[in-house]
Write a structure and sequence with these properties.
By secondary structure, the chain is mainly beta. The protein folds into two domains: 395 residues, YVTN repeat-like/Quinoprotein amine dehydrogenase (Methylamine Dehydrogenase, Chain H), CATH 2.130.10.10; 70 residues, Immunoglobulin-like. The protein is built from one helix and 38 strands. The strands form nine sheets. A five-stranded mixed β-sheet has the order 27-28-29-1-30. Strand 6 and strand 7 form a beta hairpin. The protein is globular. The two termini are 25 Å apart.
């Protein structure tokens, strides 16, 4: 474990949480899970994907790497935020993960923004993993200009991707439909929404039936938000919305349910930075458009329906007096947009959330970053609220910050390796590994606990838990990606 902040500072934070709980006499005190994952440098959580069976996939970026360069960092955790496996994915020289999906067969695709070169900027990349985190294939797309991916979806075993492309010289919203070919995805059809002289930057999107509803920012002298509902198959535009405020307005996030579509925005008002939201019926009817009053500068980051009539937002603010960025969680009624309450989460350091999801049990999960629990560098910050009605609370915290993060360059093997038995009690075998090549076993934090050569791997004497086998192929002088081994007794 890395050195955390001083015990007295940590005690002060916990006392503050208890004071918050005791002051909320009208509400029961809830226990909020807080898990921190990270390494010696910056690790930032970006998005939560709900998986079949109740697991969560935490997608983000780490530069806790041997080259101090950004790689995608993916963690699969169970419904109690306990780590099942973690892996890094690289695409030289830089890769930032932005989204992830699960396919019907349990495999995963990570959508990443990959750096192509100084002239072409960023491209789109899709990184295909087995259900246990083993890289099986990579697909890329890009033009001679910047191309920025935003979201991907699995719809009826067909993958879709949305993002922004500057191939025409202006920012245009591009959608893409893919077909599966072995361990890769081909581009079946694609299209551009509004190929005009106005720069549009895609931010988020939701689906209903065959209709894709996209939120974007129109970049100009005074930024505006636009929402477009289209049928990608024909590129038919069904309806459009543009924000009505004169102040600079940018799109942030979306959510949808049977109750309609929510769009979260940030507005630079004369009184300071404020969040705003709009609520639409599925036919495009505007039901609510509001900038709620606030005495603080706040930046909205995520929005989510948690009941048929109520939704929640997550924002950042530095003006609550704790000494850094804090997470402001708020509940709202879709009937008039009235505020329903909600607490703040944070420490004397910077804590920020990027994304919010609700699992099948009703628990709300918030993922972002914090720099208060290691050496002043960012770490993954995961909060688990038992339900949306949290006001008074105490933190049930678990700090999983190691001296190193397992960041092994990923090589796609022509002959995939397989470990059996797995779970293992005393020994296991890496089927397909060369007898002359070396390997090491590392624990979750990246510390080497055992080394050897050949396909036989002894795990006798190791405490139960998850370890990672890392091979070093002498013929390539390049490390292969890590494979998890579960040790049981």
């Amino acid at each position: 474990m890395k050195q955390c902040k001083t015990d007295m500072q940590r005690i002060a934070v916990l006392i503050g949480c208890w004071v918050c709980a005791l002051a909320s006499s009208a509400q029961d005190v809830d226990s909020v899970l807080m898990h921190v994952f990270g390494g010696p440098q910056d690790d930032r959580g970006a998005r939560i994907t709900l998986l079949e069976g109740g697991d969560l996939l935490l997608t983000g970026t780490t530069n806790s790497t041997t080259a101090s360069e950004n790689h995608a960092w993916i963690l699969r955790v169970d419904s109690n935020a306990q780590t099942i496996w973690s892996t890094t994915v690289e695409d030289e020289p830089l890769l930032q993960a932005v989204d992830a999906i699960e396919h019907t067969n349990g495999s995963l695709t990570i959508l990443g923004m990959r750096y192509a070169n100084a002239a072409d900027g960023y491209d789109w990349g899709w990184y295909h993993l087995s259900s246990d985190g083993v890289l099986t294939g990579t697909t890329t797309w890009g033009s001679s200009s910047w191309d920025l991916p935003v979201r991907c979806w699995n719809r009826n075993d067909t993958m879709w991707t949305l993002g922004t492309s500057y191939a025409t010289g202006n920012g245009d919203i591009r959608w893409m439909q893919h077909g599966e070919e072995a361990d890769a995805w081909s581009n079946v059809t694609s299209g551009v929404i509004h190929a005009t002289a106005v720069e549009e930057v895609a931010v988020d999107a939701v689906w209903t039936g065959d209709t894709l509803v996209v939120a974007s920012t129109l970049v100009g002298a005074s930024d505006r938000v636009r929402v477009d509902a289209i049928r990608p198959g024909t590129n038919e535009l069904l309806w459009t919305y543009e924000s009505s405020w004169d102040e600079q307005t940018v799109a942030v996030a979306m959510d949808a349910s049977e109750s309609g579509i929510l769009v979260l925005m940030n507005v630079a008002t004369a009184d300071g930075d404020r969040l705003a939201f709009a609520h639409f019926a599925w036919d495009g009817t505007l039901l609510l458009e509001d900038i709620p009053g606030s005495g603080y500068d706040i930046q909205g980051r995520s929005i989510h329906w948690y009941s048929p009539t109520d939704f929640a937002t997550v924002a950042w603010t530095e003006q609550l007096g704790a000494g850094g960025e804090e997470v402001l969680f708020s509940r709202w009624s879709s009937n008039g947009g009235s505020w329903q309450g909600g607490p703040s989460f944070g420490s004397p350091w910077d804590d920020a959330v990027e994304h919010m999801e609700q699992d099948a049990s009703g628990r709300l999960w918030l993922l972002g970053r914090t720099d208060g629990y290691s050496n002043g560098r960012d770490d993954f910050y995961l909060l688990g609220l038992p339900d949306a009605d949290v006001d008074g609370y105490v933190l049930d915290e678990e700090i999983l910050v190691g001296d190193s993060v397992l960041t092994i360059p990923d090589a796609i093997r022509t002959q995939p390796l397989r470990i059996a038995p797995n779970p293992a009690r005393q020994w296991t075998e890496v089927i397909g590994w060369n007898a002359r090549d070396a390997w090491m076993l590392v624990d979750f934090s990246g510390r080497s606990v055992r080394t050897g050569m050949g396909s036989q791997v002894s795990v006798e004497g190791l405490p139960p838990g998850t370890y990672y086998w890392v091979g070093q192929a002498s013929r390539t002088a390049k490390s292969m990606r890590a494979i998890p081994i579960q040790v049981v007794r």
